């Protein structure tokens, strides 16, 4: 009986590992994006506006709260796509610096994975950046570049840079991943032009890749602060609503149809938006044999992680770290999004 129980326990421990390996061998890759909602450390950086997120600041951002936030963020990142072996790569936004990323991947939830970091400091007035984490066992970075958005009519304008990462997925496909966090809607209609300019910058990065190879495998992701049917995305970024409309050099936005079905990643004043998006190029929709192909897109809202507010007037909204200036101890004001790629 003791030998039997030992065998059962051994199998229970081996099943997750063998399952993950089986998913890799089957050729399934999960790639995501997550707005971390102000992941700041607790130390003052005089070069940026981080005073609210200090122990003596407005938010009383203590080391204990910082660690709790790290644990929450890492718990989500570890859970996304876990049935397929977990995330291969993820774009992130609203983080203060490289140090918070190093602290994030050192948490218990993520430390057993061999994570790599791509990060550049942005000129954003609050000091928040975009970044890219990747599983070194499955994704090999070939190069990266940070692009600053300059608006000639507004020389003092500052926002997050756009990050391009090029790498090899499972030594099979070369992917070009562009991580964005476009300007917010603060200022109302006056802010529309800045997101149009951000979309044009993203499109110029896409075009530079497509001009070299119309079948390049490009992924555009980020918090775009506009819904999939917005002019910035349809006109300036020139995304396609349907797969059958997508031709070489085009990018397809699977979030368009999701948004039309009422699916959202962000809620404000009882209105849901799908401002967190991932798009893919024609080359990912129609790849060569044995290459990775787009399969599906999702907003991650697993009830087991309790990403939603459970009670009160904000029930079912994303469970935030702060709400109305009051500490909630939640995750983020955004739900993460992800896509699944499968090898043909």
Explain what you see.
This protein has seven helices and 17 strands. With 344 residues, it is of the alpha+beta class. The protein has a single domain, classed as Deoxyribonuclease I, Chain A (4-Layer Sandwich), CATH 3.60.10. Strand 15 and strand 16 form a beta hairpin. It is globular. The N terminus is likely disordered.
Question: What is the CATH C level class, in words?
Answer: Alpha Beta
In CATH, the architecture is 4-Layer Sandwich
Termini, distance in Å?
45 Å
Oligomeric description of these chains: single chain
The H-level CATH homologous superfamily, spelled out, is Endonuclease/exonuclease/phosphatase
| Residue share in helix | 25-40%
Rounded to an integer in angstroms, the radius of gyration calculated over CA atoms is 20 Å
**Uncertain stretches of 5 or more adjacent residues:** 1-22
Main β-sheet description: 7 strands, mixed
- What strand order characterises the main sheet? 5-6-7-8-13-10-9
Sequence of secondary-structure elements:
HEHEHEEEEEHEHEEHEEEHEEEE
Our estimate of the beta-strand percent is: 25-35%
CATH topology assignment:
Deoxyribonuclease I, Chain A
Structural class: alpha+beta
Q: What count of domains describes the coordinates?
A: 1
**Mean pLDDT, all residues:** 92
**Tally of DSSP helical segments:** 7
Care to count the β-strands? Answer: 17
């Amino acid at each position: 009986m003791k030998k039997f129980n030992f065998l059962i326990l051994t199998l229970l421990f081996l099943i997750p590992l063998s399952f993950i390996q089986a998913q890799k061998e089957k050729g399934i890759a999960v790639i995501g994006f997550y707005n971390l909602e102000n992941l700041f450390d607790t130390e003052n950086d005089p070069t940026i506006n981080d005073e609210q997120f200090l122990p003596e600041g407005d938010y009383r951002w203590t080391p204990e709260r910082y660690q709790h936030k790290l644990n929450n963020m890492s718990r989500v990142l570890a859970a996304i796509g876990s049935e397929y072996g977990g995330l291969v790569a993820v774009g992130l936004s609203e983080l203060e610096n490289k140090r918070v990323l190093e602290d994030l991947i050192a948490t218990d939830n993520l430390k057993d994975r061999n994570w790599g970091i791509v990060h550049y400091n942005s000129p954003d007035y609050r000091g928040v950046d975009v970044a890219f984490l990747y599983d070194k066992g499955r994704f090999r970075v070939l190069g990266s570049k940070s692009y600053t958005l300059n608006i000639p009519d507004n020389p003092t304008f500052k926002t997050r840079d756009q990050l391009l990462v090029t790498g090899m997925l499972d030594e099979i496909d070369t992917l070009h991943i562009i991580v964005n966090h476009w300007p917010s809607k603060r200022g109302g209609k006056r802010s529309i032009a800045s997101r149009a300019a951000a979309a044009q910058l993203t499109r110029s990065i896409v075009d530079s890749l497509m001009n070299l190879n119309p079948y390049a495998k490009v992924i555009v992701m980020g918090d775009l602060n506009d819904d999939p049917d917005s002019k910035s995305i349809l006109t300036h970024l020139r995304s396609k609503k349907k797969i059958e409309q997508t031709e070489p050099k085009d990018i397809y936005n699977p979030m368009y149809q999701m948004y039309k079905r009422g699916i959202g990643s962000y809620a404000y004043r009882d209105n849901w938006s799908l401002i967190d998006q991932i798009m893919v190029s024609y080359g990912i929709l129609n790849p060569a044999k044995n290459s990775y192909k787009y399969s599906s897109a999702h907003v991650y809202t697993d009830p087991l992680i309790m990403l939603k507010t459970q009670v009160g007037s904000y029930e079912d909204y994303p469970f935030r770290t702060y709400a109305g200036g009051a500490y909630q101890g939640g995750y983020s004001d955004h739900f993460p999004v992800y896509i699944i790629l499968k090898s043909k």
